[in-house]
Design goal:
2 copies of one chain form a homodimer. Chain A is α/β, with parallel strands linked by helices and 430 residues long. Chain A contains 15 helices and 16 strands. Chain A has helices at 10-34, 38-54, 56-72, 77-83, 87-102, 141-152, 166-182, 199-205, 220-229, 252-264, 283-296, 305-310, 319-323, 339-349, 362-371; strands at 114-115, 121-128, 131-136, 156-160, 190-192, 213-217, 242-246, 273-279, 300-303, 315-316, 330-336, 354-358, 376-379, 398-400, 408-410, 416-423. The longest helix of chain A has 25 residues, at 10-34.
């Protein structure tokens, strides 16, 4: 399926042709990248790091255009901050590139193989996915991070950033392509879409001949739009409505610290606890003290009736609270009669991202970890650990809420796939 | 997204409501199945096998209705054969059920785990996908096979077979549900769509709230239709345009036997060789002899000019031949100058299913296996080995030509996914 021309205007036809060309170039580059040696990919990443340092003045001049436009358009100061290619932001990108360069190459490794009765060996080899589209919002650091992870895993990348960062992303794209050239890799291995036209997003999302997967990094609006329009498979990150359940057999000091950390480590991350479930037997012992710690941090509490009987400051919680990913200093609290009710609540309301149980009881811990159907399930840990670096992946392109392919934090391995490799000596079938 | 009502007629609204209900019931059953013990799933499969034997008369009476309709509709005798629930066909289903019952339960196994510097353990646990839709054409044995594999892997299943097998599939569905009940598992774990209305297919393919993946088993028309309509991810099986490349360092006796087996083991399977590539240095030695063996089996040969100079009986091959999955006793042959040209041909024309090299040269073998981007790549084996049983998977739901999730033959593992499981003792973040 080619990019559909949804409008017959020459503008849209031209845009479609441009996106089509990007796709063809990416596919061609992907074939070279698929078998590029690890040292060449690492050399390209180091060359990009060197050029980020070297071209700082150019990058910051281009970035200044975006910043000025952002201020003129009345963008919120926090958003303007996120846009800024400060010395510190560039330094972070450089460090990231060098770290990814040093990681082991995921491509070409093989799983354990088995030998069939006829003597042929059957195994699987890790290979790149092919061409990855990244559609993201304003942070220009994604341009570098995503390109680096996709390149390391042997994929060609088409990057479509937010229009607010247009000049910055274009300049970063030039740095990336120069780094690729320095290492003798095809420049089309990483391409930045050279237009702010929003129609380009829909065209990329239907370019099934040339793009193998699209990773959207942005708000729910972007993801909803892509989920409705895309024919290319999406590796998507939806809500993190995360739960901590304090079991009757919890160590209450641990429970206090885990719940407090899960909520207050950072309010805006997808792993932040949004609803706390507490076993009725321990609620009177743990809730008043925990509530006080949360209130001291400025967290607004909303609870079920039994919770409100213990915490007078809590507002009444409704079904909407159980369903909400606040990403703010607000916490919903519900007292449950047993672990079954806790798991029922999670099955009913969770977005399937990350849940945790606090307990010293082995059976409860095992049951919770086995039966809760979320992409990450923890025992005696705060949900805010949901992060590829914390899991030891060394890098993270995002957190997947898909059920297929990669689920939870996605590192380099999630950007690859497996092919079957069979070796024989003339065995025949039948 | 709910099933869209594409027509306002009360009929379509009713059908949409019916499909919606199937989805809700499947989702609910999936939660129970997700944690059902292995012995209960095995017991259900054995109970189904017993009931297939016991209810043979009923099944064959229902099957007779389909057979009669098929004959009245002038269905080809081969198609009528495929429809028939003969004693032998039932016996094969029973054997299959018992084999699947005896396989190890894939659910709940854990990957190797690592311990992070803070002491928390990070691993992954294999879990069911959830709800799987199977959309297939006339063979009623798929009803049993697919239900058994999905159940064994802990998934709820919605089965939508071809209308030609409607009565047979409904009767098989009753046997399956009775077997589930015998083992105390929810009857909605396997549901057969109770209508022949083709609109049901489109409704299932967009039921993203309740179906996690759809596996189409049928012709290209069905898959093309689903690829255009589906919002639910597809695990799909497209063309098998498979290649064997005879390298200059091939053992020519092995090459002869491998190529002959790859083409003639069975013409209609997706792993059948459709194009043979031969290194120019060995073509004069191998091709005349191999051509004779193929012609003796009644295979029509089509070749490039150089091939035709060696094999006068070969018709001229065109680009359409390079692109075609014949599934018939026809073979395209091309002589190439080196392994690079062979791999270029494959990159240009292959459907990415299965390719093989015949060589005694380690470097050529390794290069081919590493660089050819197909879901299976063989050394010194015929492409007709593309099959889950041959790979030792113990069962096969199909062969995936997707790049993501499962690629190549899909067994029980491909019907599961992984979740992250972290275990700590009160570690906090930040």
């Amino acid at each position: 399926m080619n990019a559909p021309v949804t409008d017959t205007s020459s503008h849209n036809a031209e845009l479609a042709a441009q996106i089509q060309t990007l796709g063809q170039q990416a596919r061609q580059a992907a074939r070279t990248l698929m078998t590029a040696p690890g040292h060449a990919k690492a050399a390209a990443l180091r060359a990009m790091a060197a050029r980020l340092e070297q071209d700082k003045a150019i990058l910051q001049a281009e970035n200044a255009k975006d910043l000025e436009a952002a201020r003129n358009n009345g963008l919120a100061p926090a958003m303007v901050d996120r846009l800024m290619l400060s010395d510190k932001a560039l330094k972070t990108m450089i460090t990231g590139l060098l770290q990814i360069a040093d990681m082991p190459d995921p491509v070409g490794s093989q799983t354990a193989s088995s030998t069939r009765p006829n003597g042929m060996r059957v195994g699987q080899m890790r290979v790149p996915i092919g061409v990855i589209g990244i559609i993201y919002e304003s942070r220009p650091n994604v341009t570098i991070d995503a390109a680096a992870l996709c390149l390391k895993s042997g994929n060609a990348t088409i990057l479509r950033g937010g229009s607010e960062a247009f000049h910055s992303n274009r300049a970063l794209g030039a740095v990336i392509q120069a780094g690729l050239a320095d290492a003798g890799l095809p420049q089309h291995a990483v391409q930045v879409v050279g237009t702010t036209d929003r129609a380009a997003v829909g065209m990329l999302a239907t370019l099934t001949d040339y793009i193998d997967v699209i990773i959207p990094r942005g708000g729910k609006g972007l993801i909803a739009r892509l989920a409705a329009e895309a024919r290319v498979p999406l590796l998507k990150h939806l809500d993190g409505n995360c739960h901590v359940y304090i079991d009757e057999a919890a160590d209450l000091d641990k429970a206090h610290d885990i719940a407090l950390n899960a909520k207050t480590y950072r309010y805006g991350i997808c792993g932040a606890m949004e609803t706390l479930l507490v076993h009725a037997a321990v609620a009177p012992k743990i809730l008043p003290r925990l509530a006080q710690s949360l209130l001291d941090k400025g967290v607004e509490l909303r609870g079920c009736e039994r919770t409100r009987a213990l915490i007078p400051q809590a507002l009444p919680a409704t079904d909407e609270d159980w369903a909400t990913e606040y990403l703010e200093p607000i916490l919903a609290i519900r007292i449950v009669d047993d672990i079954g009710q806790a798991m029922d609540h999670i099955a009913r309301w969770s977005s399937g991202h990350t849940e945790a149980i606090v307990t010293e009881n082995l059976h409860a811990a095992t049951q919770f970890q086995r039966e809760v159907d979320s992409s990450s399930v923890y025992i005696n840990l705060p949900t805010c650990f949901a992060d590829g670096f914390e899991y030891g992946l060394g890098a993270e392109i995002g957190i997947s809420t898909n059920r297929l392919h990669a689920r939870g934090p996605v590192g380099l391995e999630g950007l690859t796939t497996l092919k079957w490799v069979l070796t024989g000596d003339g065995q025949l079938r039948g």
